Amino acid sequence: MLDRFYLIIDDVAHLPNFLPLGVKTVQLRLKDKPEDEILLQIKQAKRLCDKAGCVLVVNDHWKAAYDANAGYVHLGQEDLKTADFHALRSAGIYYGISTHDQAELDSALALNPNYIALGPIYNTATKELRWQPQGLETLKRWRERTSKPLIAIGGITLERAADVFAAGADSIATISDVAKAEDPAARAAEWLEASRIWQR
Distance (Å, rounded) from C-alpha 134 to C-alpha 144? Predict the structure, then answer.
């Protein structure tokens, strides 16, 4: 089960700053790193997360996630053609899929994922995207289409979180609102405190 607060980090070195706070869902998003370092970071993250009782989600790198026996892997649309879903299922690794429009949602649902992600909900500076902000109305439509856990991502601040949950999100994936805060650990603690109100 993914927590309401779904933190995304770009290096295993950040985990010791957040796990002691009680963070229970972390996605490790590794970009532009050699394969051996990716596998090493995933294995390190799994050890740390297991010890802390935190769910680890590996972004994109499904082969490394499989080799490290990570709990979850998060797949983008570009990963769907190469991912070995049979191997992931056989290893007991759950997978979520990013979606940005109706066609992608249909494709994702056909693969029976453990969760669906929708984004960007709002404008985001985290990465260049070709999609316009989806907004809360699209999130509501996605909620009507599926009973799968629904992850909202993209430009979501703590101040916007209540509206996003009200629109149907089960979890909110957070990058910039924590990573770019003056004190990232303190901001994560604020999310955790608020999430007690939002628990299902």
Answer: 15
Distances in Å between the Cα of 163 and the Cα atoms of 3, 39, 118, 177, 189 are: 17, 37, 15, 16, 20
pLDDT value at position 177? Answer: 97
**Tell me: the pLDDT tens digits for 152-195?**
999 999 999 999 999 999 999 999 999 999 999 999 999 999 98
Are 51 and 15 contacting, i.e. CB atoms less than 8 angstroms apart? no
CA angle, corner 48, sides to 46 and 51, nearest 5?
Answer: 105
Q: Give pTM, 2 decimals.
A: 0.94
**Structure tokens that stand for 92 in this block:** 């007991």
Contact 43, 10 (CB under 8 A): no
The closest alpha carbon to 7, from 37, 52, 66, belongs to 52
